[in-house]
Design goal:
Blueprint: E1 4-9, H1 11-19, E2 23-26, H2 36-47, E3 55-60, H3 63-68, E4 71-72, E5 77-79, E6 88-89, E7 98-103, H4 105-116, E8 118-120, E9 139-145, E10 163-166, H5 168-174, E11 182-184, H6 200-211, H7 218-233, E12 237-242, H8 247-258, H9 266-274, H10 282-295, H11 305-315, H12 329-337, H13 339-355, H14 369-378, E13 380-381, E14 384-385, H15 397-413, H16 421-433, H17 442-449, H18 460-466, H19 475-483, E15 493-497, H20 506-510, H21 513-516, H22 519-526, H23 528-531, E16 537-541, H24 542-548, H25 553-558, H26 582-600
Parallel strand pairs: 2-7, 3-12, 5-8
Antiparallel strand pairs: 1-12, 2-4, 3-7, 4-6, 8-9, 9-10, 9-11, 13-14, 15-16
Helix pairs in contact: 1-4, 2-4, 6-7, 11-14, 13-14, 14-16, 15-19
Length: 625
């Protein structure tokens, strides 16, 4: 049976439906992400009778759906970082029929938090605590100023009513302010009941305001009267109700309904299927891993559920494609039985990447990490999985260099751009076939992809183009790492200019007589393609970077304490480092870097895919936000 539009309900009825779990959230919904400002703007829109769009609910009546899929309650006490996920509601057995929110979760959660809950976010200039701490993240409730609205030039949000999330201390501090009266919005639910709209003013609003000393305040009268009517009497929750119990049809409706917002990852839908067969709370387990990879100082990479699920498929030797059949009970059981090891491997993999110099900015294609995790999971070292030893810098340096070289090459070639499932499947087979080699089979991988549209080799034009990459481009790290793999991996390395950036400002250049006399040379010095590109960049450890600062290159190199020689820059001792000779420095170093690149990567005269652009921005939508 198809759905239909139903009669709208009041906000209070929606709140009651949330309280008694007549409204639930399906696992396919994302976590709540709205800010306090968005919630305040929503309430302002409601108060001003602005449309807030139609909601979509799904009547869940099938016992099979209740048993097979997971549903969650609405957030009550949101706390940044520490309470962002919803609580699981067991709907198995004889659980009553209910409505799952297909479209409108963020709005409905915002309304519920505003009326019944709290919102906690970190205080400014306060360190993040290790655990939830009300001092650092004090709970705030939604209040409405009954004294006056919002006006003036600072009203960028163009709101009329002054809604704010305030702490108890803030509310207490405002009590001495004669220009404000902060009414806790949720208290409107406990005010006396009336039988008709025309009784609101005389039987509810005026008695309350008289008690609070605001009976003569016209703004307070209008605001509280409007708030009461909005929450208790107005039928403002308009919704479409889907009655079909065909899960495939409902998932299709869900995708189409949400396509206007942030694009859906199909893994969000598969999560609902996978976690139904997971003992415990799969979403919580996966979200905790995602949070650790994002927040730990040893990693700080952004990954999403889709990446985790695809990695689980890869590591358990399953088909990596996102198909419903790949998340059946048997596969989920295998994943869960190995979850502890899979989780440890993922953490070790991203810890390794951090030690190899990657950060979230330079790791442009997260799917490229999955084959590395697979190799570390399947390969062994001293009769233990390799991921247990790979981050120990006292061992396996050659292995790390091979892994690093492969990853930098595929990132620069854009191998994992677009649909990566084919590459992942092929890498899965290749790595499995060569596990007995006991080292990462870099040469075999390159050979296997040669002549395909995922060719990992570089041609001459491509190599020259790499040297034009500018400082700040995420590919800088990969190019410099391929050029200088021998730099000590025990050190945290930064990218910095050799001839300092400050020397190439318009003001600085105008002070050089030799440039004033030569317009073409001045143009060369001003062009960032020269001074801001790879030829004038290098990897420096933290102490070297601090000592370098804006010091002239020749002066800095002459200081023996820097630990950097001209040979380290691939220049012979006869090469001048004087700023006057930057033109020759640029040419000599660029040629030396080109020779080194030719040696460190696999070069081809003609690639199978010359149309792949150097500036290909692969997998930008790969990570959830």
């Amino acid at each position: 049976m198809a759905g239909r539009f139903e009669r709208a309900i009041t906000i209070r009825q929606a709140i009651r439906n949330i309280d008694d779990r007549t409204f639930l959230l399906p696992a396919i919904q994302r976590n709540f992400v709205w800010s306090t400002q968005q919630i305040c703007t929503l309430f302002d829109s409601l108060m001003r009778d602005y449309p807030i769009n139609t909601f979509m609910f799904w009547d869940v009546t099938s016992p099979e759906i209740k048993d097979k899929y997971r549903f969650y309650s609405f957030l009550t006490d949101y706390c940044q970082r520490f309470k962002e996920s919803n609580d699981y509601v067991a709907t198995k057995g004889d659980f009553k029929d209910f409505k799952a929110v297909i479209d409108g979760q963020q709005r409905l959660t915002s309304i519920y938090i505003g009326l019944k809950g709290t919102y906690a976010y970190k205080q400014p200039r306060v360190w993040w605590p290790n655990t939830r701490n009300d001092q650092a993240l004090p709970p705030r409730r939604l209040y409405l100023n009954l004294r006056k609205g919002v006006d003036g030039d600072d009203n960028e949000a163009m709101v009329h009513y002054d809604f704010r999330f305030l702490t108890e201390k803030q509310v207490a501090a405002y009590q001495s302010d004669a220009t404000s009266y902060w009414f806790e919005v949720g208290k409107v639910l406990s005010l006396p009941e009336v039988k008709s709209d025309d009784q609101i003013l005389l039987e509810v609003v005026l008695p309350y305001l008289e008690q609070e000393g605001l009976a003569g305040d016209s703004f307070a009268i209008k605001a509280l009267n409007r708030l009461y009517y909005l929450v208790r009497r107005a039928e403002v929750i308009h919704f479409y109700n889907e009655e079909s119990q065909d899960i495939d049809y409902v998932l299709d409706v869900f995708i189409r309904t949400n396509s206007g917002g942030t694009p859906l990852a199909f893994s969000d839908l598969l999560m609902s299927i996978a976690i139904a067969n997971w003992e415990g709370d799969a979403r919580k387990d996966i979200d905790e891993l995602i949070a650790e990879v994002r927040q730990s100082s040893e990693m700080q990479f952004s990954i999403g559920r889709d990446w985790v699920l695809k990695t689980c498929l890869m590591l358990t030797d399953a088909d990596v494609r996102f198909k419903v059949k790949n998340f059946d009970a048997d596969r989920v059981s295998i994943i869960q039985s190995q979850w502890k090891q899979i989780r440890s491997c993922i953490v070790a993999t991203f810890t390794l990447l951090r030690r190899l110099g990657f950060n979230d900015h330079s790791l442009r294609a997260k799917n490229a990490v999955i084959p590395l995790a697979f190799y570390l999971y399947k390969q062994s070292f001293k009769d233990q999985p390799l991921y247990l030893s790979i981050t120990n810098l006292n061992h396996l340096r050659d292995e790390r260099l091979a892994l690093s070289r492969w990853l930098h090459m595929v990132l620069l070639r854009g191998i994992f751009g677009g649909q990566a499932d084919g590459v992942l499947s092929r890498m899965q087979r290749l790595l499995t076939r060569h596990l007995e080699k006991k080292t990462f089979p870099l040469e075999e991988i390159i050979e296997a992809f040669t002549g395909t549209n995922k060719d990992m080799r570089f041609d001459e034009a491509y190599l020259r183009g790499l040297l034009d990459i500018q400082y700040g481009d995420p590919r800088c790290r990969s190019v410099l790492s391929l050029l200088f793999p021998e730099i000590n991996e025990n050190l945290q390395l930064d990218i910095d200019h050799l001839h300092p950036k400050s020397a190439f400002t318009k003001v600085s250049l105008s002070g050089h007589a030799f440039l004033k006399e030569d317009a073409d040379l001045m143009a060369f010095y001003r062009n960032p393609l020269n001074w801001n590109s790879i030829a004038n960049l290098h990897l420096l450890n933290a102490s070297q970077n601090r000592s370098k600062n804006d010091m002239a290159l020749d002066e800095w190199i002459s200081n023996k304490g820097t630990g950097v020689t001209q040979a380290d820059l691939l220049l012979d001792d006869s090469a001048s480092l004087d700023f006057k000779d930057f033109f020759r420095f640029y040419g000599a170093r660029r040629e030396a870097l080109l020779q080194r690149l030719r040696h460190n990567v696999v070069v081809s005269d003609a690639l199978a895919t010359p149309e792949e652009a150097l500036l290909d921005d692969e997998e930008e939508a790969e990570v959830e936000t």
